[in-house]
UniProtKB/TrEMBL annotation:
GO MF term set: metal ion binding; molybdopterin molybdotransferase activity
NCBIfam families: Glp_gephyrin, molyb_syn
Protein name: Molybdopterin molybdenumtransferase
Domain of life, per lineage: Bacteria
Gene3D superfamilies with a match to the protein in the record: MoaB/Mog-like domain, MoeA, C-terminal, domain IV, Molybdopterin biosynthesis moea protein, domain 2, Molybdopterin biosynthesis moea protein, domain 3
Organism: Cohnella fermenti
Domain MoaB/Mog: 198-337
Annotated metabolic or biological route of this protein: Cofactor biosynthesis; molybdopterin biosynthesis
Length: 427
């Protein structure tokens, strides 16, 4: 049986392109509706569940932009160094005070940056353009010149009118968003409940990180790497332990995890064609729908994903770099889509390849790389050991360089697509 693709093993795998696999997956993702309300200080790194809208204009009063004097432009229009104009200071307005009176002809108010400009005034003259004086129990100021560059007066609503949507639901809350929410007076913020993602490691060879090394065994780095990736995608990682390469045991545990309150389960290891690749077997016998189990990509071609009652199950490769790439290509988009904030365009950019990449492949390669701005253009260079078993150079990558299928490799200077890595690490 052969249907529109390659079948190469007992699992009857049909190879999908990464785009086909992504489409299948995203079609199964339901945006999560669960939200919670958290104090503003705890909203950092979370995603807004509702739009944030201004209830007042910003700023909501006419604000001085300089320390100096609020004046009527009409009074100072003709002022010069030779013939300064003298105005009577009728009040002092520090920041936070409400002016008591309207400025009349010939009057000025001493005002500080951020102070509320009194009615009647239509400019603020910085104090460097003026001299204060006293006489007969009154205060005066001599204005040499109004600043021709501007009035130093911020009008009401300069940044946003009342009723403006500042932030959309799904927006990741970082520094700028915290400033916006504080400005809006949002002391409590409605954010999406974090998608809970269980992490299951499979592999008889896996050692706990605290265990001494043993011949033939490896420490479980994927579980910790995945926890960090899940957090950076706005999820809550739920460690679900390690099972040896025993399909019955994995089946029992996966059944429990899928029935738990987790929104998704990410398993690593055992998805290829080996005798002990138990996740591949599990995906044959589970009750869910397997969406794909072979993708035309390297690393991570055996990456598998399925859905059971709206819960996603990912079978990522055990090879660390393949596990990482499988997460970035499939798990991150799915978690972001659950939080209504996945847009491929946010993650993709074009870059010039900084060195030849001559490996030939029928599959697209997602090469860990570093993108940098050099002489005005973005250049991306592969970094570290370009193997799916590599673990140590994952930290050095800031992008995945997408090398399309090619018979002759790609030359330095060619324009390639790249995918941004990283994201906010949630506190
Ligand atoms: N004959 C073939 N062999 C392989 C194929 C193939 O098509 N034909 N595919 C290769 C590709 S591509 C990949 S990718 C790997 C996928 O391997 P699995 O997902 O089945 O992973 P495992 O066999 O369980 O382990 C592979 C490797 O990764 C190490 N590992 C596993 N889990 C962890 C962990 N939690 N932390 C750190 N390292 C881990 C494991 O010890 C193995 O070294 O298969 C190729 N083979
Ligand atoms: O698809 Mo694999 O990750 O190249 O070894
Ligand atoms: Mg294997």
């Amino acid at each position: 049986m052969r249907q529109n693709g390659t079948i190469n093993d007992k699992w009857n795998r049909r190879t999908l392109t990464p785009a086909e696999a992504t489409d299948r997956l995203l079609a199964c993702v339901r945006p999560r509706t669960g939200f919670e309300e958290v104090p503003l200080a705890e909203a950092i790194g979370r995603r807004l569940a509702v739009d944030a809208t201004t209830k007042e204009p910003i700023p909501h009063f006419r604000r001085a932009g300089m320390d100096g004097y609020a004046v009527r432009l009409e009074d100072v229009a003709a002022a010069s160094s030779e013939e300064p104009c003298e105005l009577e200071i009728v009040e002092h307005i520090p920041c936070g005070a409400v002016p008591l009176r309207k400025l009349e002809r010939g009057q000025a108010a001493r005002i500080m940056t951020g102070g509320m400009v009194p009615e009647g005034a239509d400019a603020v003259v910085m104090q460097e353009m003026a001299e204060a004086a006293c006489g007969h129990g009154r205060e005066y100021v001599r204005i040499r010149k109004a600043d021709p560059r501007g009035t130093h007066l911020t009008p009401i609503g300069e940044e946003a009118a009342e009723g403006t949507i500042l932030l959309r639901a799904g927006q990741l809350i970082g520094a700028g968003e915290m400033a916006d929410l504080a400005t809006l007076g949002s002391s409590r913020v409605k954010v999406f409940r974090k998608p809970r993602v269980a992490i299951l490691s499979t592999g008889t060879e896996l050692l706990d990180v605290a265990a001494p090394l043993e011949p033939g065994k490896v420490r479980n780095s994927n579980a910790y790497m995945l926890a960090a990736l899940i957090a950076s995608a706005g999820g809550e990682a739920v460690p679900a332990g390690t099972v040896p390469d025993d399909c019955d045991r994995a089946e029992r545990l996966l059944g429990e995890l899928l029935a738990s309150d987790a929104d998704a389960v990410v398993a690593t290891g055992g998805v290829s064609v080996g005798d002990y690749d138990i996740m591949a077997d599990y995906f044959l016998r589970w009750e869910g729908t397997t969406l794909f189990n072979k993708v035309a990509m390297r690393p991570g071609s055996p990456t598998t994903a399925g859905v059971w009652k709206e819960k996603l199950l990912f079978g990522l490769s055990g090879n660390p770099s393949a596990c990482f790439v499988g997460f970035e290509l499939f798990v991150r988009p799915a978690l972001l889509a659950m939080q209504r904030s996945y847009a491929a365009a946010d993650w993709e950019f074009a870059a010039y390849l900084a060195e030849d990449y001559l490996k030939v492949n029928a599959y697209a390669r997602y090469v860990r790389g570093r993108a940098e701005l050099r002489e005005g253009r973005v250049e991306a260079r592969p970094i570290g050991l370009d193997q799916s078993s590599a673990v140590l150079s994952i930290k050095d990558a800031n992008c995945l360089i997408v090398i399309p299928p090619t018979k002759s490799g790609i030359r330095r200077g060619e324009l390639v697509k790249a995918i941004r890595l990283g994201g906010v690490i949630v506190p």
